[in-house]
Specification:
This is Alpha-glucosidase. Pfam families: Alpha-amylase. Keywords: Glycoprotein. This protein is 26% helix and 17% strand. By secondary structure, it is α/β, with parallel strands linked by helices. The protein folds into three domains: 20-112 and 188-460, Glycosidases (TIM Barrel, Alpha-Beta Barrel); 119-173, Oligo-1,6-glucosidase, domain 2 (Alpha-Beta Complex); 474-542, Golgi alpha-mannosidase II (Immunoglobulin-like). The chain has an eight-stranded parallel barrel with strand order 1-2-5-9-10-11-12-13. The protein is globular.
Amino acid sequence: MTVSTPSPLTSDADWWRSAVVYQVYVRSFADSNGDGIGDLRGIRERLPYLRDLGVDALWLTPFYTSPMVDGGYDVADYRDVDPMFGTLGDFEEMMTDAHALGLRIIVDIVPNHTSDQHPWFTAALAAAPGSAERARYLFADGKGEHGEQPPNDWESIFGGPAWTRVPDGQWYLHLFDPAQPDLNWRHREVRAEFEDILRFWLDRGVDGFRIDVAHGMIKAEGLPDVGFSSMTTGRRQSELLGKGRLPYFDQDEVHDIYRAWRPILDSYPGGRMAVAEAWAETPQRLARYIGPDELHQAFSFDFLDATWSADSFRKVIDTALAESTIVGAPTTWVLSNHDRQRHVTRYGDGDIGLRRARAAALLMLALPGCAYLYQGEELGLPEVLDLPDELRQDPAFLRTGESRDGCRVPIPWSGELAPYGFGPAGSALSWLPAPATWRALSAAAQTGVPGSTLELYRAALRIRHRHPALAGTDGITWLETAPGVLAFHRTAGDAVLTCVVNTGDAPALIDGYGAPVVASEALTEQDGGHLLPVDAAVWFERH
């Protein structure tokens, strides 16, 4: 297989500090061949849409060779493309086109575990206890007279025990599905393998990596018990870490891995970067993942978890900005992703949820740092809550009844009938069904329509790119407001942009901030100012 020699974008090595990154859930973005599954050629065909939206980079979920037990987060070959999504050549052509359009490419890397179909794990199962093959993973003898009990009390994040017994009596660890055995990151061969995997994709021109379970690769020596039922009430890792540091998350040695990865990233031109999906017991411990000798970013999930109130948002924003000052790196904001319920639904669903989601988008895009959008949020898509059980594919569903499938339904592009242009003309296939209500939310239905959510995002992103006050990563200045109203300035020289969000229960009169340049809901003029409706946001500009 030949290796292309693309020319990564090199105009700004710090592009990631204020970028807007669009997450592509590959399986659900665009289907080029009519088999009902999104693929790399489909992404390539839709790149002009993403350029016109105004994003700076795409983050692609795993497209590697995989049995797809967990949507591709169970990788069997880290150096090739699963035929479901195309070929390595398709990836390189897609990336070349993306770079030509000014879009950078971030790919997912899944280092905590492999697929049980990975050659290393099939070799481990064929080998004996204590073998070199098993040393790459976390195999252990069980407890009890005959080793019939798991080695410790750890539970899977997907529900049930975190250990599975093999025929010779040993157990292997899987913090997620049994088809996702955890690697032993104290093994030199494991570390060398992933450093080579990084280089493999960097050589092909990728601009960065999103690191899955970045806090989970190192487990405490001796694999001690947790001492309490840690995961039976849900999968959210933030809740687990709220009970205290766990022996399988956020161990100090994990930072050695990233200190070895950073020189690799820095050795390539064009500002190659890495962002951590990391959870930690305290903000201070999360901040340790970021720095000039470790990673560039870590997601601010507290912003995603904020409730719809001015006090909640302000507390989260203040905390995140204070942390960013400490580590000298920008904050990374996110409202939705492939693992969490879409924020339209979290904020109340229906009309009220959409109003709040639109306002939250303006809030997020006005903040300093990097913003990550999840595909379809620019269309105002809600969570699909009524998928038939037999169609759900999340491996956690059978164990816990919880499912992430509702945020992974293929996005609507055009047309009156599902799957709304997801595939080529005439194709009616889609791996998950879209609801009838989505015909009005398609990209085609919203394009050029004043007030549509798509045009709101396009307008906000245009302003974000051109406005000097939004171009940097400097902090914000909070303004005195009525209860329930959140307002702050961002400045650059004489240029001032003010963001105002009304989370209260009555319209708010806003005056003295200049001219409105974008609003999530229509404003009315009153007493020389502007009346901002409930559950709405606006940007004002003053020079």
